[in-house]
Design brief:
This protein has 323 residues and is mainly beta. It has three domains: 3-70, no CATH class; 79-212 and 313-321, Sandwich (Immunoglobulin-like); 214-308, no CATH class. Helices cover 5% and strands 56% of the residues. The protein contains one helix and 21 strands. The chain has one helix at 134-148, and strands spanning 8-14, 17-20, 23-31, 36-43, 53-60, 63-70, 79-87, 90-100, 103-112, 115-119, 156-159, 164-172, 185-193, 202-222, 228-232, 235-244, 249-256, 264-272, 279-280, 291-296, 302-321. Strands 7, 8, 9, 10, 11, 12, 13, 14, 18, 19 and 21 form an eleven-stranded antiparallel beta sheet that branches. Strand 15 and strand 16 (235-244) form a beta hairpin. The longest helix is centred in the middle third of the chain and has 15 residues, at 134-148. The mean pLDDT is 87.
């Protein structure tokens, strides 16, 4: 996730000046039976405005790659927005909107007093290969939506005159959520909607929910005593079973009591046994169903639950003007 810390270096050479990269972060990986690759974002110090060409040099051990890069002035193509909705101490904002090649693209900002776990539940994007056509890709997206069903709750764009379009992809910012201790957590990302051009001047961004991580509460349980009721920082749940899974693991099934807190408690964030570095978590909660977590335990079989997942229920609706 941080190539510059693992033997890679990158620099931009402009004339006789050399500027080393300040950061290099992994955006995405892709694999097939023939290839494996990654997309990284490299950040450099500001260059002179008059520069129109540079050479990108990437080094790893004895290998060096050189790529010629041309610069062109960039124009501002997005319209700034100030739409905001606050619920249960969490602010959701739409800060910019643009149109590009039949898509409506919106910048979203979420601010919360706790770490932001997820905003909605976008489905994974199907893999694309060199032979994948746009028609094939759209068909695979439709099939993904059918298969994932209720496990996916995507951000949507609704037109005032009718029509609903779910997000087709997101681009996440790599900046840390919390700039300094005591400051609020902020998550920024760009979401694109496959929306045809219409004469509509107003639309509504619909965010289905926001989930947060409260990292402070912790509680332990002896799996010899199941079923057992637990209290995690005021949030109640029950271990209903703990069956052996492999040589030294237990599959722990948890049932969460209806929560009246706001934000609403949905599940423990993590569970670990003998080694706290190897924890179990459940990223795909299905409403009304028990939660299954598996981890290695010692003797006696003690497990520790740390953190609570809290949900701000939607829909959170932001009305925005369209360019």
């Amino acid at each position: 996730m941080a190539p510059l810390e693992n033997g890679v270096s990158a620099a931009l050479v402009v004339g006789t000046s050399r500027m080393n990269a300040t950061s290099m972060r992994r955006r995405r990986m892709h694999m097939s039976h023939k290839y494996i690759g990654a997309i990284d974002t490299i950040t450099f110090p500001q260059i002179a405005a008059a520069a129109d060409r540079a050479e990108l040099r990437v080094n790893e051990a004895a290998d060096e790659w050189r790529i010629s890069v041309d610069f062109a002035p960039g124009g501002v193509e997005a319209t700034a927005l100030a739409a905001e909705l606050v619920r249960d101490g969490v602010a959701v904002r739409a800060t910019a909107v643009a149109r590009h090649e039949g898509e409506v693209i919106v910048e979203i900002e979420v601010e919360a007093p706790r770490q932001i776990r997820v905003v909605g539940a976008p489905i994974p994007t199907p893999a694309r290969f060199s032979s994948t056509t746009e028609e094939d890709h759209r068909a695979r997206l439709i099939e993904h939506r059918r298969v994932f069903g209720e496990r996916s709750a995507q951000i949507a764009l609704e037109y005032e005159g009718g029509g609903r379009y779910e997000e087709v992809r997101r681009l996440f910012s790599q900046e840390p959520q919390q700039a300094a201790p005591g400051r609020p957590y902020i998550s920024r990302f760009v979401v694109a909607f496959d929306a045809p051009h219409t004469d509509e001047k107003v639309a509504t961004i619909v965010v289905p929910f926001v989930e947060l991580n409260d990292r402070e509460p912790t509680t332990t349980a002896d799996l010899r005593d199941v079923p057992v009721d637990l209290n995690l920082g005021g949030h109640r749940f029950r271990i209903i079973s703990a069956e052996p899974s492999g040589a030294d693991q237990r599959q722990v099934v948890v049932e969460v009591a209806p929560s009246r807190s706001r934000p609403r408690f949905t599940q423990p964030a993590r569970m670990h046994g003998i080694d706290e570095k190897h924890f179990a978590w459940n990223p795909e909660l299905r409403p009304g169903e028990p939660i299954s977590l598996t981890t290695a335990v010692g003797d006696p079989p003690i497990v520790t639950f740390t953190g609570a997942v809290l949900r701000v229920d939607g829909p959170l609706r932001l009305e925005i003007p369209l360019p």
